[in-house]
Structures are given as C-alpha cells and as structure tokens.
What we know:
Elements: H1 6-18, E1 24-25, H2 28-34, E2 47-50, H3 54-67, E3 71-74, E4 89-92, E5 100-103, E6 108-111, H4 117-124, E7 129-130, H5 143-148, H6 162-165, E8 166-172, E9 178-180, H7 184-193, H8 195-210, H9 212-221, H10 233-237, H11 241-249, E10 258-265, E11 267-268, E12 272-280, H12 283-293, E13 300-304, H13 306-312, E14 330-338, H14 341-354, H15 370-381, H16 383-390, E15 396-403, H17 409-422, E16 429-433, E17 438-445, H18 450-470, H19 489-493, H20 495-508, H21 563-579, H22 583-599, H23 606-610, H24 617-628, H25 631-640, H26 644-665, H27 667-680, E18 693-695, E19 713-717, H28 720-724, E20 725-728, H29 737-747, E21 751-753, H30 765-768, H31 773-790, E22 798-800, H32 803-812, E23 819-820, H33 822-830, E24 834-836, E25 843-845, H34 849-853, H35 857-867, E26 871-872, H36 885-888, H37 890-896, H38 900-903, E27 910-913, H39 916-924, E28 929-932, H40 933-940, E29 941-943
Parallel strand pairs: 2-4, 3-4, 19-21, 19-22, 22-23, 25-26, 25-27, 27-28
Antiparallel strand pairs: 1-2, 5-6, 6-10, 7-11, 8-9, 8-10, 12-14, 13-14, 13-16, 15-17, 16-17, 18-20, 24-29
Amino acid sequence: MKHLPKEYKDIYNQFSQKIDPSRIYTEPLETFAFGTDASFYRLVPKIVVKADNAEEVSYILSECNRASIPVTFRAAGTSLSGQAITDSVLVVAGNAWKKHKVLDNGDKIRLQPGVIGAHANNILRPYLRKIGPDPASINSAMIGGIAANNASGMCCGTAQNSYQTVDSMKVILKDGTLLDTGDADSRKEFEKSHGNLLEELKQLSQDVKNNKALSERITHKFKMKNTTGYSLNALVDFDDPFDILEHIMIGSEGTLGFIAEITYRTVEEHQHKASALITFPSIEDACRAVIRLKSEPVQAVELMDRVSLRSMENADGVPVYLKDLSENASSLLVQTASNDKEKLDLQIEQIKKSIKDIPIEIPIEFTDKPSEYAKLWKVRKGLFPTVGAMRETGTSVIIEDVCFPVPELAEAIPALQALFSNYGYDEAVIFGHALEGNVHFVFSQDFDDKKELERYKAFMDDLAKLVVDRFDGALKAEHGTGRNMAPFVEKEWGSEAYEMMKRLKAIFDPNDLLNPGVILNNDPELHLKNLKPMPAAHETIDMCTECGFCEPACVSHDLTLSPRQRITVYREMMRLKETGEKPEVLASMEKAYDYQSLDTCATDGLCGIACPLDINTGEFVKDLRSQKNTPTQKKVASAMAPRMATITSATKFALNTSNLFHSMLGSKTMDSIAGGLRKISGNRVPKWNKYLPKAAPKVKPEKYTVKDTKPDKVVYFPSCINQTMGLPKGQEENVPLTTKVKQLIHKSGYEIIYPKNLSSHCCGMPFSSKGFKEQGKEISDRLEQALYEASDGGRYPIVCDMSSCQLTMVENMEPRLKVYGPVEFTLKYLAPKLDFQPTDEPISVFAVCSAKKLGMESKLEELAKLCAKSVVVPETNCCGFAGDRGFSHPELVEHGLRHLNEQIPKEVKNGYCTNRTCEIGLSTHSDITYSSILYLVDQVTTAKKKPVKAQ
Length: 951
C-alpha cells in the first residue's frame, strides 16, 4: 500500500474499518489482474474491493463521495467497450452476489448482479421460461453487466431486453442510499430523503415531452437497437419518477448508480426449435429476405457475409458446401420456435413461402434436430474467435456493433464493406442480428504503430459519418457506449438530446465520480487513449483476446487468478521485462505470480472448452512449471519414473500408517495433530482429512491369455491411484474399487486381461501436471506398449477406472487403442448384459473435470438414472482436487466446492463420481460420502439370464 497516493491510503483505511482487508487489493499483480476487461482498453485501478453485499457497496460509495474519489463497478468484465475499467477504485460484484428467487411460478425472477445469465436460464428451465436478454456472452456475462449495458442478443431484439422486461430493482446511489423500486416503504423513504432528485427527474421528463421534435426523435431512435448514450426513452415512456429512475438505470453502465438486484419479467422458452442456413447469391438478396422475414414467425435471423462464411469453411463440423459458395454469397441463419411440433412445421412452410421468389444458392432445409442445428449455429458463433485466431501476434481484435434501419440494410452493408476496403481492413467480417438491423463487424488492429493508429482514427470518423449522417442509425446497438463511442454520442444524438443526457448525469452524479469518462466525455480522442498492449508472451496464449469466457469454468477464479488474469498478468510481466520499466512493479508481480498462478491452477483444461479460441491455460501453466523445475528436481523425477512400483509401495505404507494413527487417536485428535505438523512445516506436509483411505490390497492379475479364442475379453488397467488407495475408515463398502471392477466385469460375462508388470505402470499425469513432460511421456509410452500387447493391438477394449487417467491416455496414445472410462465402458459393454433395478434412494452425481472434457457429463447422468429413480446433479465445475494438489493446496478444493453442500438435498446420503481423489474432496466438503459410480452399478444390477452381444 506504500505506493498509493495519500488520498487512496486514507480511503483504504476507511474501507478497512467495515470491510475485511483480505477483500481489499492494492498490490500490483492483483490490481492489474482485476483491471482488465474484454475491451481493448487498459486502466489499472489503485484499489480493488470485492464487495460482499449491498451494505458494503453503500459504505464504499458514501466514503468515496465524501472524499471525492471516483468509483467504477464490474461483474464479469465481459464488456467490450471499456466500461468496466478504472484508474481509481474498482468495486467487484461477482461471486458473492449469486442469490436468486423465482417468483410467480417462473413469470418473474429476482437476481443479484453476480448471477451468470445462463445460470438464470437454468434456474428457469423447469418453468419453461427464460430471461429476455440473450447476449452471445450469456455463459459468462453476469446480470449486473447485462442490465447495466442493456445487452440484448440474437433472439432478444428490442422487445425482450432489460429495459422492456425489468419489473423492479434495488439501486444504490452515489451517496450510499439504497432504493428498492418494488417496495412501497422504500419508495416512501426515498421520497423524503431524495425528493429533489425525483422532482428533477420529473422536470427533465416534462421538458423532453414538451419538445415534440426531440421526443419524437427519441421514440424513433429506440425503435431500433440502440445503446448509444443514456436510455432517454425512459423520459418519454413514463411519468412516474420511480419508473423513470428504474428504466434510466438500464444501460447506464454504472455511471448513475449501482444495480444491487433486479427482478425481471421472464419470457417463454419454446420446446421445439428448427434452424436453416439459407444462402443467397448476394448480400442485397439476403437483406431483401430479412425485410420479408421481419413479419414472419422467426425467432432469430443472423446475417453472415461471404468473408465471414469463408473464415469458417475449414472448421470442424460445419457444412462442407461453404467452400463451394459463389464469390458474393451471403447467408441468413434463421430460427423458428414453438411449443407445438405441428405448428412449428407450419411456421417453416410459411417462412419458406415468404421468400420463395428471392434467388437462393442451395435449397432451403430446416432441421429440428438439436445435434444438426447446433452445427449451423457453430458457423455463426465461431466467427469472432476465428478472426481472433487469424490475427497477427501483438494486434488487438476489434468487435463493433452498429444498427441500420432494416429497410436500408441492402444499401448499408455494401457501403460498410466498401469502407473496410477503403481502409485496407480486408480481413474484416460482417455478421449480426439482421432482424433488428444490428450489424457486428470484427477486424484486427495494431495499436503500437502510429500510422496504424491514425488509420483506425480515420476509419472511426468515417464510420460515424456512414452510420449517422447517411443512414441515421445507431453507433452502438447492444455493446454499450463505454469509452469507444463516448466521443461520438453528441454526433449521433444532436446537441439537444446530448444536453438532456448531461442534465441526467448531473441529477445523479454532479461531481462525475461514478465511472467517469464513460458514455459522456468531452475528449474527442478518448477512444484512442489507454489502449491495451497485446505483446507476444507465449505461443499458447498469444491469441487470447481477454474476453473472460473462461472464468466461470475455472476453479481458482475468485480465490487467486482466473485463466484470463493469468494470461494478462504474464503478458504484462513479459512487457515490463522487455521495456525495463517499473522494475519494482515487475518484482512484486513475479514474487506473487507463483502462488497466484502456478501453484493454484488445477490445470484441468475446462477453460479451453469455454474459450472461443480453444486456449488451454492449464497447458500454459504446465509449461511454466516445467521452466521453473530445477535440474535437481528433474533428476529426481527421472529417477522416480521407472520406479512406480516402489513409489506405490511407499505411498501404501504412508496410508496405512496414517490409518493406524487415525484408528488410535480418532478424527478430531488426528486432525489437530496433522494440522499442527502442516503448520510447522510451512504447509509442506500434505493436508490430512478423515476421508484419507488406507492402502489398497495388491491387484492379482488373472491368467487369461491374449490369444485365447474366447471373444468376450476386456483389458483392465487399474489406475495407480486405485492400486494405491483403498477405502477410508468408516465407509460402509468393504471392497476396494479394483476388486469391485473385477466383480462387475465378471458379472457381465467378460474375462479380464491385465497389462504385464501392472504395478509399475502409470498414465504419466502425476509427472506431466507438475511440468515434468519428458518423464511423463516416458511412463506413458511404457504403459501404451503394455496396453498394446494386452489388447492384441487394439482388438479388445481397454477400461481404466478413473476418468482423469483415461483422458491422459486418450490424449497421449494412438487411437488404435480404444480406451474407455467407467461411464462409457459401462454403458457400451456392461449395461447390455445387465438388468438394472434402480434404487429408491436419491443420489447425487458429480462430473469431474476430466469427464467433462471427455464429453461424459450427460452420459454420467444417463447412467445414474439407470441406477436411481432420483438423481441430483449439482451445478459445478472442477472440484479443485487436481490430482494431489488438494493435499498440498486444500484451499483450492474448499473454494471449488464452497456451494456444493447447499445444492444437495438433505435426503441424499450418497454421491458418485469417477475419480478417487475427487471423491476425497467431495466427501470432505459435503455431508455425504462419494465413491465410484461403479459401486452403484454393481449394487443395482444382476446378470441377464441370456446375455446379449455388446453394441
């Protein structure tokens, strides 16, 4: 904190009086990490505060108001226009703000700002409802940002955005006052304390209404998608000042107050959907079709120009005919929906009929199969990442969205294409929500070169002329004004409307302390300042656009760093090394980076699934760990790799010793002693818990031979973990998993072949995850050879009893070896030969991260439903155990499973997953015992009297 200016030291001390100092950040790594968002701007806050509740936000605002210190709010930080960054105080309202409540049988939902949009829809799914806004970032964007930016999306349009569907909200003003617009008592109190503010709002509204030309202009502008400036339509649409206030907060980007809670009126989620990719010979033909489709029963109409289609033609799973389209072809991705299948079919015919006289390149074919229309939507959703991946290292990805009147699309889009051509942005792709005239475009830009910056400046000036002067459109349709379009707000709206916006800002924030510089700004070159450097840092991460889509999938997010933060901090460290500037900042970052990034990354790779560019930050972290491994450590790893049997024996001895003391001392005393030893050792001694098992008995391979003519054989490779770990003290089950798997396979009529030298094999993951790549590959190759021999060159299926080991084997080994995990093997090979009698006892299942990466999440639920009549599936990511990291860094598991217990009903007594170490963490942080799903399969099945051949 010593580097802070005096006024910020003072405000830090004030915050610390009522907020836990562990949630107030001032160190360079932390402030830099939280200071990034998805835009191409960069400001570093002086203080970051993770506020836990409305009372803390009220306190922060009142203290900053008193001290005249600016405050900015952020939730997920997926904003694209620079509205979630600051060089002052940043208040983060994320993971502590997850409360929600379904109202009126799903017709309404009350949400705190930290709820992710997709999670809100998951909550509403049983009611066949959803929230109206559906931004492309809905899987990571949080409600606070969705409302504050009035985000919309592909199906939302202007009828179902936050402005149109807000029912009430709790808002905190700059002086710390909290108003609940849905509570009569709160409104009465507010009238007493802030009567002047309400009167000023009423007067402003009246002044706008008295200006007929202006009010008509406002109404006209908001018939199209428009997030440029403030929601002036609230001044025209409402008379009650509370209604005006409530709606003016939508799209205000944190410049008028903090939205602490919002209640939405929900919209219908149709059960039947169908999509078609309709391709036209020209963009003009596609736009003519859009005008027709505007009045048809369509839910979404997404436009893609030829450049965008060409950028996706080589992607996996997309239609092959994309490569053969004509030079000027353009496509519309059309979706229609209904709750009635017959009605859906009628709608499809109606849509086809409406555009039958417009030329097309390929016959129109709608599909209502989710697996098929998902491929079509992959074309649309892959556009932004595809361009991002194609850019030169060191450049930024620019994504903008404008809106044209729909009848003028056929003229406007070719004009936009010509503008790109004039400025040499030949790789730019154009796509968007054509039904609303909302057009997105994406291109790459080098901000380090002065000439390139001048090119961008001139382009933006001409873009404003094209959109505003020629077509009277909107410069921001749904991404919010932010910093990028703040210099152009007056140009779009005119001086009268702009003056009303300034009056509005003055009513709520006369001293310009709430997110200053955003929406309203007198600097005509603001959009060219504080640009984010994107230096080359590491080939694995160089293409990262810092969008933040990875963060909800990361177990360490909000404990230490997220994948995005690991990348952005590393980039900055590499930049500081290159330039030599701020050596004290670099030293501070480097010192903190090991724990914040390398030590607490689970390396589970779920971030890679969520990433639009498939960037696996776990692989990046493994590489950094490898670089940090000393020669001595590498020698030790090399010595251990060929001696897995010895390591297994030593670990078994340790487990039995621990189990002996546990039996003698009891759980409470054992926990106290072990905790003391861990503390004395500086956390070098692994964390003990009562679910730590005793050693497993040695696996005794059977004597079936590979060349035996009997066909029903499987190769079973018991993971080294399950060869080592037996059952914990007090568990009802008395058979170790390796024996249980053997019994289950025999019950299904199969003979088992074990690889030779069983106890000496390992998949290699314990080494590779710690950065010992060569050693991990050495033992992986040795196991592959043993499995090749055991399976007769891939003739027999191979089953491994842990998903994480299966994933490692699948990734490392030749595809000729068919390696299955517990779930897929059971469904494909065992289930056809077993009769299931599902238990009445409700159960919980947890898909571990490796099962998710293998695509087994839904398969696990399918298997569980064969075994039990009631199945609970908690909404979680990785448990955080990460191999053995749960022993060395138990805080990662505690953080990853902090919401597990509240999601499991009390009547559930048993849980199941597919990873032994994960079971330890899951059992520790819930009130139930977790074990392998194979125990449950064995419990509820009997062998069929007449076994059928496996599928």
